[in-house]
Amino acid sequence: MNKVILASRNEGKIREIGEILSKFGMVAVSRDDYGIDKFEVEETGETFEENSYIKAKAILDIAGVPTIADDSGLEVDCIGGRPGVYSARFAGPGCTPYDNNVKLLGLMKHIPEEERTARFVSVITMLFPDGRKLVARGECKGRIAEEMRGEGGFGYDPLFIPEGFSKTFGEMTADEKNSVSHRGRSLARLEEMLGE
Ligand code: IMP
């Protein structure tokens, strides 16, 4: 079987990407299962594309087989597209997702509904040892709620209301979220690109 190593340790992402790869005769292997678990890649890029490339390239250089890495985050228009690539660490080193949501709400206290526009972005980069590269981007537009709502999902989900809905991602089922989410879209795009 043709192995593809995934940079992510997230089991949900590994399963979803694994399902797509299996349609093309490839099998997804986590970096832990491949025995390259003892290093951390520093995400020094300024874009999601750069960071997903950095992660995929670090593993390709070690393993020499095809690799896939993803990078994602939230861009909020009224604060110049922040937190962007800093989404995970917006409220500082060691912060929790709750801290990040509190910080975002604080910055947006006086911003009216029509100016609370935002988007989630997901970029997946797949690299092959012969130099080929696939980059799949998915976006989900929406707006930032005025308070946290819902227990589902992770990260900024309690604050993000996707376009065409009144619920936050945190109030949706996983299937509902996946059908419109940035990651659902970048995965669909990767599948399209593999098919081409
Ligand atoms: P990473 O791409 O796994 O490094 O995720 C970066 C950060 O973006 C996460 O820690 C979250 O703060 C945020 N993020 C990315 N995707 C989502 C999502 O689907 N829901 C909520 N937060 C997200």
TrEMBL record:
Mg(2+) binds at E42, D71. Substrate binds at S8, R9, N10, E11, G12, K13, S72, F154, G155, Y156, D157, K177, H182, R183. SUPFAM superfamilies: ITPase-like. The keyword Magnesium applies. It catalyses: dITP + H2O = dIMP + diphosphate + H(+); ITP + H2O = IMP + diphosphate + H(+); XTP + H2O = XMP + diphosphate + H(+). Binds 1 Mg(2+) ion per subunit. One of its GO terms (biological process) is purine nucleoside triphosphate catabolic process. GO terms for cellular component: cytosol. InterPro entries: dITP/XTP_pyrophosphatase, ITPase-like_fam, RdgB/HAM1. GO terms for molecular function: dITP diphosphatase activity; ITP diphosphatase activity; metal ion binding; nucleotide binding; ribonucleoside triphosphate phosphatase activity; XTP diphosphatase activity. Homodimer. Pyrophosphatase that catalyzes the hydrolysis of nucleoside triphosphates to their monophosphate derivatives, with a high preference for the non-canonical purine nucleotides XTP (xanthosine triphosphate), dITP (deoxyinosine triphosphate) and ITP. Seems to function as a house-cleaning enzyme that removes non-canonical purine nucleotides from the nucleotide pool, thus preventing their incorporation into DNA/RNA and avoiding chromosomal lesions. Belongs to the HAM1 NTPase family. This is dITP/XTP pyrophosphatase. It comes from Baileyella intestinalis. The lineage of its organism: Bacteria, Bacillati, Bacillota, Clostridia, Peptostreptococcales.
